[in-house]
Design brief:
Layout (H helix, E strand, L loop, with lengths): L11 E3 L27 E6 L4 E6 L5 E6 L5 E6 L5 E6 L4 E6 L4 E7 L4 E6 L5 E6 L4 E6 L4 E7 L4 E6 L5 E6 L3 E6 L5 E6 L4 E6 L5 E5 L4 E6 L4 E7 L4 E9 L2 E9 L4 E6 L7 E6 L4 E6 L5 E6 L4 E6 L4 E7 L4 E6 L2
């Protein structure tokens, strides 16, 4: 399959200033204590029905700002390694918004394709790959020039994207129940791996393997980049959404999976040869997005039903803070 490289139809909009909208806050049940020597991260939440990104202080768990993305259907987020830029997809607009995290203003908006769903940064942060569900393509966005470099035809309804640790391969989940393995140099699909129904989310695990969820079923799966094969599939509960990794004391890493059908975060031993459920944590209604702090001691969970962010202490498996955010928070990321 030969990729189609085209830069037609691209639009760039720069905003000199973004309107500062409302601020909100929610007091945590108890004052959280971060490990000594660590700066608190800043947490970002994509609110699909509010068309905004909530910004939460990772030390006080209070909302600092609600950023207007100047688009509609804010769905996914990707933050640069230096934490200075945040890329947000907007399903209804087919555009990616770029947020300057120092000023908390939207500085650019780029059209990528119909129903752009997920955005993932390459390992060197030079490109953002964007999955366009209705166009059946991956758009490649230059993160410095804010222009589309080209596109890759990928198959029916691309959903999730992750890159191998060495950056040689991109993995794209699609509605045709497959994950495509893409050579990042040639942009050619070298293999298609059968997985489950509606494979939604992909992430590079701490073990260097690619972990994903079959949201249309009740399982997660693990892909080994060394063999380009699915090495494990495991049942966690109905409609699993996203995965993050953390530690319980010295035990781990463990995979924390948001399972919408249970309203729980299911904790799985992150060993593909010995996948098993360690515990289940009650959270809010419709858990979806999840992210961990840099040392894996806090998990941040967004809920599309209760419209809030829960913070889990991985050591005690307790929710230590709840923060009201925008409507239908889908994706959560945090600065390193």
């Amino acid at each position: 399959m030969k990729p189609v490289m085209s830069c037609s139809g691209q639009v760039l909009i720069r905003f000199a200033f973004a309107t500062i909208v409302f601020q909100g806050c929610a007091s945590p049940p108890e004052e959280p204590q971060l490990p000594l020597g660590l700066d608190p991260p800043r947490i970002y939440i994509a609110n699909e029905s509010s068309n905004s990104v909530s910004v939460v202080d990772g030390g006080t768990y209070k909302v600092q700002r609600e950023v207007d993305v100047f688009n509609h259907g804010t769905h996914d987020l990707a933050i640069t390694r230096d934490g200075k830029q945040l890329f947000a997809t907007n399903l209804a607009s087919g555009r990616v918004s770029v947020i300057d995290t120092e000023t908390l203003q939207t500085i650019a908006s780029i059209y990528t394709g119909k129903r752009c769903h997920v955005v993932t940064l390459t390992n060197d942060n030079r490109q953002a790959w964007v999955a366009n569900i209705e166009d059946d393509t991956i758009s490649i966005l230059d993160t410095k020039l804010y222009r589309i470099l080209g596109s890759i035809p990928i198959g029916k309804g691309p959903m999730g994207i992750a890159f191998s640790r060495d950056g040689r391969y991109g993995y794209v989940s699609s509605q045709d129940k497959t994950v495509s393995v893409v050579d990042t140099s040639s942009h050619m699909i070298i293999k298609k791996l059968p997985v489950g129904s509606n494979p939604h989310f992909l992430i590079l695990g701490l073990d260097g393997r690619i972990w994903g969820t079959n949201t249309g079923e009740s399982s997660i799966f693990v892909i080994d980049p060394a063999t380009q094969e699915v090495m494990s599939t495991f049942e966690v509960g109905p409609a699993p959404q996203q995965i993050a990794f953390g530690y319980k004391g010295t035990v781990g890493p463990n995979a924390y999976v948001t399972v919408t059908g249970l309203n729980k975060v299911v904790v799985v031993k992150a060993d593909p040869s010995d996948l098993r459920i360690l515990e289940q944590i009650d959270v809010g209604t419709g858990p979806n997005g999840i992210w961990s702090n840099p040392v894996g001691t806090r998990l941040y969970v967004g809920h599309t039903g209760s419209n809030d962010l829960h913070v889990i202490d991985s050591g005690t498996s307790k929710v230590i803070a709840k923060v009201d955010v925008g409507r239908k928070p889908i994706r959560v990321v945090a600065s390193r």
